[in-house]
Amino acid sequence: MKVLVVEDNQSLARNLVTFLSLKDIDSELSMNGRDALHKASVNYYDAIVLDINLPEIDGIEVCKALREKQKDTPIIMLTSRSSKSDVIEWLEAWADDYLTKPFDYDILIARLKSLSRRNLKNKSNTFIYIGDYTIDVEKVEVSKGKQKIKLSKLEYDLFKYLAQNNGRAVERKELYEKVWGEFDGDFMFSKTVDVYIGYLRKKLDRQIIETKKGVWYMINI
């Protein structure tokens, strides 16, 4: 899991990043709203922990801007306020959840994992259409017209994940984590993802998967 932590309180920000690391959760830190909006717009995160009171652009406006960009990344707001009007304002900005400061870090972790699972499930439609190809999620099949394309489990999982992120360049590290379900420090030296991209290109139209600067892969149909 990769989380963007947006918090301008240096002490709290450091504690959050350290705690997430202890729970084997990769995190990136942003300390103002403008930087957070940029990072969340161009990078992939499984969830965002977003403080409301931020320099430059406040958390509510960051949340609204991301939703306007069609970014559906789960967002948990951090706040010292919890009145009825406050909660309504956050929900109307399309935040997914909130925690009132001070909060229990273990509860934050549990909510992050819950929102991430829910978001992944929502992306699992019965059929995914990519150009001439159809991915049948329930039957775990890929076809081109009436012709079934025989893929291994890893080839299928890789193609499906890229298809679910159609139009977005996906980093090799993310594919390694999401498709293979693991991560280690040697991933940068591993050719596993590249090899399976090659397998897919042999079984599908070669041009269906683009390579971006050697570390990103993208379906753009």
Short structural description:
The chain is of the alpha/beta class. It contains eight helices and twelve strands.
Classify the beta-strand content into a percent band: 15-25%
What's the total helix number? Answer: 8
Described by the principal axes of the CA atoms, the overall outline is elongated
* Helicity, as a percent range: 40-55%
Uncertain residue ranges: none
Topology as a string of helices (H) and strands (E): EHEHEHEHEHEEEEHEHHEE
Query: Could you give the order of strands across the largest sheet?
Result: 2-1-3-4-5
CATH superfamily of the largest domain: Response regulator
CATH architecture of the largest domain: 3-Layer(aba) Sandwich
How many separate structural domains?
2
Q: What is the end-to-end distance?
A: 27 Å
The average pLDDT score comes to 87
Per the CATH scheme, the topology name of the largest domain is: Rossmann fold
Radius of gyration using CA atoms only: 19 Å
The secondary structure category is alpha/beta
Write down how many β-strands occur, each being a DSSP E stretch of 2 or more residues: 12
Largest sheet features: 5 strands, parallel
CATH class of the largest domain: Alpha Beta
